[in-house]
Task: structure prediction
Amino acid sequence: MKLIYVAGIEHCGSTLTDYLLSRHPAAIGLGEVASFFSPEHMKLYLQQWGSYPDARQCSCGKAWEDCEFWAPLLPLNGAVSKAPMIEKYQALLQRVATLYGDGAIVVDSSKSLTGLKLLVDNRDQLGLQFDGLLAVLAIKDVRGFAASMLRKEGAANSLRGIFGIFKRWRFRNGQFFDFFEQGRCRYYISLYENLCADPARLNHAVFGLLGCADRLPAHGGVARSHIAMGNKRFVANFDGKVSYDDAWKASKRIRLAYFAHPASRRFNERLYALACDGTDAEAMGTRT
Result:
């Protein structure tokens, strides 16, 4: 079995990345697996969303307890089980194998570095080969990220506020880069700007690294998913059209902050260099 771990921070394209990867005929998108199994995250999820009709509904359209995938795993969800996370992942992968066979490709969009480290550290116990675990870092241009955060948080559109967002973006993504440079797992950089310009490139690159690009459907295919926790509404409502939100280009403050914050600008330029050179095997994390 193979597993793609979609990593990254909020509002950087992880949901779209997950959806596009789940269109491979052997792939099954499972959303934020670690959040489903985590007592802390499940508690917060139910507190915030528990009153909504679809809170306990899978993206397949059925309630968790009626879903062919999640129903047997419900005793392991974070609300009722404090079993070690690695044991829960073992049960999850066994469930995938039972339903879809050992050739299935799991798409786990848990996003956090903690979740990725857990899988990497316990790869042998989970039966994942080095070449069978691939991290896909979903990341957005810092200027686009700043525009998204200003809209989401209602933050003051001041240079100081934008600098704070830049620093957060650089620090949190820098942690992923530092981990990748240790060479403990293979990775691919999914730059949101490139993803919007050429969505097909993602699957050809990622499944090429996994050695199964020849199995890609001719026209992209239909996403197959059992997302218990994650952006289920996106999966239900996505019309297949990908467009880039370039609102940051109209913000003089964001553009000024970018030129006045050299550390974030250098990191952003490094990101483009890694993400745009698809022929650079080392940049794409294929070294062993």
About this structure: The two ends are 19 Å apart (CA to CA).
